[in-house]
Amino acid sequence: MNGHDVPADPDPAPQPDQYPVEWEADVVLRDGTTTHVRPIRPSDAAALQRFHMGQSERSTYLRFFANIERLSDRDLERFTVVDHSERVALVAVKRVGQDLREDIIGVARFDKVAPHEAEVAFNIADAEQGRGLGSVLLEHLAAAARERGVRRFSAEVLPQNGKMLAVFQEAGYVVSQHVDDGIVAVSVDLDPTDRSREVMADREHRAEARSMHGLLTARRVLLVGPGPTAEPGTAERLLAERVLANALRDPGDGTFEVVGVAAPGGPEPLAPPVGERHGERHGERHGEGEPSHVDDGRHGWHGQHDRHDHGAAHGHLHDAATAAELVEELVEELDDEAAAPPVRFRARIADVPGPVDLALLALPPREAIAATAELERLGVRAVVVLSAGFAETGPDGLALQRDLLRTAHTAGMRVVGPATYGLLTTHAGHRLNASLAEVEPVAGSIGIFCQSAPTAVTLLATALRRRIGISSFVSAGHRADVSGNDLMQFWQDDPETSVVCLYLESIGNPRKFSRIARRLASVKPVVVVTAGRSGQVVPPGHAVRSTRAPRRTLDEMLRQSGVIHAENTHHLVDIAQLLAIQPLPSGRRIGILASSAALTALVAEAAVSAGLVVSDCSTFLPEDADDERIESAVAALYAPDACDVVVAVHVPTVRPRVGTVSRAVARAAAASGRTTVASVLGLHGLAAELSAPNPADPDGPRLHVPAYSTPEDAVAAVGAVVGYARWRDADHGTVDRPEGVDSDRARAIVEGALAGDSVVDLDAGTTARLLAAYGIELWPSRRVRTADEAVAAAHEIGWPVALKSTAESLRHRADLGGVRLDIGDEDELRADVEQMRASLAAVLPAGNPGRALTGESGTGADMHTGTAPFEVQRMADAGVACVVRSTEDQLFGPVVSFGLAGDAVDLLGDVSYGVPPLTDVDVATMVRSIRAAPRLFGYMGAPVADTAALEDLLARMSLMADELPELRSVELYPVVVAEHGAAVLGARVQVAGAQRADTLRRALPG
C-alpha cells in the first residue's frame, strides 16, 4: 500500500535514548494467538529483507505499486533507520526456526508531511493475513502518531487492495476517501470516536475470549518436569509429580505427553528436558514424532469408573515421596488396562509430536524460558508455569519473568502464572485437570478465577465440600499475563458458565477491568473479593502500578460496574451458590419462616441491616408443628405477591430434625420459582433434604435450595444478590457528550503547556482557556496590592464583590478573616482591605509574614507567585459551596470527586468518587450519595439548588479528565450552586506527561 514513500537521504541513526521503548507491546490477535509489536531498529534490515522477499508479487505490487523483487541497500536503510518522531515505523515480530530468530510479520509506518498530518503505509505478511494484525498495527501506529502531534493519516491505496481499505473503514475513525487517477486517496482523522472505542473493545473482547477458549478447551497437553538434575523433594519435582499423578488417575478428555518426570516404574527421567539439552538436537536422537525408548507400553489410563481418592482434596503438596509413590501405585494398576494410552512419556521436548494445545512447566526460571522457546514448533497456545522463582525474588527475577513473557508472546503463546495452581475445566468434551488439585470439583456453572495457589486450595475445597458445581477454574499465580480480565471476556460468551467469581490480590488495569466487568455484569453476575478493601495490596511477584487514590475508589469502581463486592472468600461462595441454583430476586421484600419467634426477630434485624424489607407474611413454626400446620405456613409464605425472597431457618433445640420443613420449603420453592435460601442445622451447601423435582422436567436434575451455616450468612448473601438484581434492572444512563466541547483546542492547550515529565502548574489565563474548551466558565478575578487597585478592579468586574486573601493557608477561610463577602461600595471595600491587612498580620506565620501576605503560593485560578496579597472577584448568587476535583492516578487513571465545601466535610470524608467515563446516572448518583446532599435539596427551608447545572459541570469534568490523561490534577473550588446555575469561582490545574495504563491501543501486561 502507498507507493510514494518520502524520498530523502537516510536520517542519522537514532541514539539509544531516543528509542521509544514504551511503544513496545505484546498483543493478542484475532485467532487468540499473540505477537510482539515494537519500533523498527537499524538491526532489522536483514529481517525486513526476508519479509519483503517472502511476499507474493501481488502483495508487493499493492504495497509499492510495482513489483520489486529485492529492496536496495538504500531502501533498507531508509526503512529501518528512523527518528521515531517525523518518521516512525512499527513491526510485528515472531520467533521462528531452530535459532529462534525474530522474523517480521507486519510493518506499519508513517512519515510526517505536515505538522499534524502523516502519510501512512502498511504491509502484512501473506501467511499472517486474516488474523487482525493490520487493525492492531493501526491502533498502535495511531497512538504513536498522537503522541507526536499527528492528527490525521493520509494514504494512497490501489482500488483492488480491499483488505487495506477495510482496515481503515472498519476502525471506527472518521474516514474520507476519493478516487484520483485510479488511486484511492484515504484520509483518517485520528481523534478517537465513540465508534472507534467500541470497535477496539469489541475486537479486544473477541481476541481475548478466543485466546482463553484455546486455553480452556485444550485436548493435547505437554507436561515438562525438571529431569534427573532435580533432587527429590524439590518444589519443581513435587509439582510435576502431582500433575502427573492427576493425569494418570484421570486424564479427562485429553491426552498428556510427559517429559522430564520420573517414568512410571523407572528410577528417574531418562533425559533432562531443557537447558544444555538444546545441543542434542544436532546429535543422535529419536526421529521427531516417534516415542523414545521410555514409551515402552506402560501408558497412563485410569477412567472415572475406577477413580481413587489419594489424600485430601486440593491439599498442599506432600513430602517428596507421596506423589512419586502415587504414580507408581497407579501405574501398577494401569499395566492391566487395555485402553488406548492417553499418557505417553518422551525423552525430550524435541521428541514430542505436534500439535500440542497446552504446556505445563515445572522448571526453574531459566529452564522454563528455554523450554518455552522450544514449544513454538508444536503450535502450543498457552503455557502454564507452575513453578516460582520469578518476580517475587526481586529485580533479577522480574527480568526473568519479562524474558518468559517475551519468549512466549513472540511465539504466539499466552502465559498462566508463574506460581500458579493450574487450571481445570468440566466442560463436556473438554474435561481437563491441568492443576495441582487431586480431586476435581463437581461439574456446574460457576467460573472461578484466583491468583495465589493457597487461595485456590481454599476455594476448590470449599466448593467441593458444599457440592456446588464449577464450569472452569484458573489460578493465575503472579498474573504476569493471563488475568481476570481475560477470563471475564471468555465467560461472557461461555454457555457453560452462568456465575463469575474472582479473587483478586491485585488489579493491574482497573479501567479495563471496569469496562469488561460492566459489560459482563449486564448478562451474568460477577462476584469479586479483593485482598484488602482498598485493592492497594501488592503481593510479591505482582508487577502493579502504585496508587494514591482514596480507599473508596475501588468500591465506587466496582459499584459502577455492577460487580458484587464480597467481604471474603466465605461470603463469595455464599453468594455464588445462591446465584448458581436460584433465580434472581424480583424485589427486596423478604419472607421469613423460622423455628421460633426469637429467631424470626433476629433474622428480621439482619434483613433490615442488609437493606431488605421484611414482609408481613413472615412467621414462625414451633418445633412440634404438625405436617398440616407446616404446609399451611409454607403455602402462605409462597402465596402470590406475598414476598420476593424466602429465608427459611430451622434450628431445633430439643427434638431431632426430621426434614419435614426442609422438604416442604424445597417443594414450594421449586413450584413457585421464588428465590429461597435456608439455614438448617446440620445442612450446608447443596443437600438432598433441600431439593425437589423440577416441575418443568420431573425426570431431570432436582432443584436445590442452598443451605447456609448461619441465618446471618443466608441474609447477607440475599442482600448482595438483591442489590445486583436491582442494578441489573436499573437504567444506567449513557455517556453523553455535552454541547460546547472543543477537545482539539483543549488538547493543543495542554500540549503547549507540557514540559516533558515535569509537573506544570497552569496560570490563570491558560486554566480559564482550558476549562472554556469544555464549556466550563471560570469567573474572572483580579489580584491587587492596595485599596485603590481593589476599587479599580471592582469597577471593572462589577459590584458587589468579594475580597479574599491570596495566602495559601487562608484560602476560603472566612473564619480566620481571609474572606470578606458582599462588599457593595468603595468605602466598604477600602475599609475591608485595611482591616484584612491588619487582621491577617496577626494570624500569618510570624517568621515571614510579608511573604505570606504577598500570596507567593498562589490562589484561585492563579497558581503562580506574585506580590499581590489580595484578590477581588464579583459576587456570585447565594448558594451551596461545593468542591469538584479530578486526579490522574497511576493505577486507576482519572478519579473524579465531589463534596460540599468546608472543613467538616473534609475531616469526615463526606466525598463521593467516580471513575470516568461517567454516565448521566453515575453523575446524578455522585451528587446524591454524599451525606450532606440534603443541603442541595432545600434542607431546613433553604432554596433548592440547581443540581442540573451541577451535574452538567461534573459531566464536563469527567469528560475532560477521561480525554486528557495529562491532567495530573484539577480542582474547582469553590463552585457555588445557586437556585439557577453553578458558578466556578476558583480553579487549579496541573499537567504532566501521560502515564495512563488503559490507552487506545490493545496491549498485554508485561
Question: Summary?
Answer:
The chain is of the alpha/beta class and 1006 residues long.
Describe the structure.
There is one protein chain. With 1006 residues, this protein is of the alpha/beta class. It is 33% helix and 21% strand. Strands 1-2-3-4-5-6-8-7 form an eight-stranded mixed β-sheet, with helices on both faces. Helix 10 (395-410) links the parallel strand 13 (382-385) and strand 14. Helix 22 packs across helix 23 and helix 26 packs across helix 27 (947-963). The longest helix has 23 residues, at 194-216. Residues 3-17, 270-321, 334-338 and 847-866 have low confidence and may be disordered.
Please count the beta strands (DSSP E, at least 2 residues each): 39
Largest sheet: 8 strands, mixed
Give the integer mean of the pLDDT values: 87
Residue runs with pLDDT of under 50 for 5 or more positions: 3-17, 270-321, 334-338, 847-866
What structural class should be given to the helix and strand makeup?
alpha/beta
Morphology call: flat
Report the total helices. 27
**How far from one another are the termini?**
32 Å
Q: Order of strands across the biggest sheet?
A: 1-2-3-4-5-6-8-7
Q: Multimeric state of these chains?
A: single chain
Measured by DSSP, the beta-strand proportion falls in 15-25%
Radius of gyration over alpha carbons?
33 Å
Q: Kindly state the percentage of residues in helix.
A: 25-40%
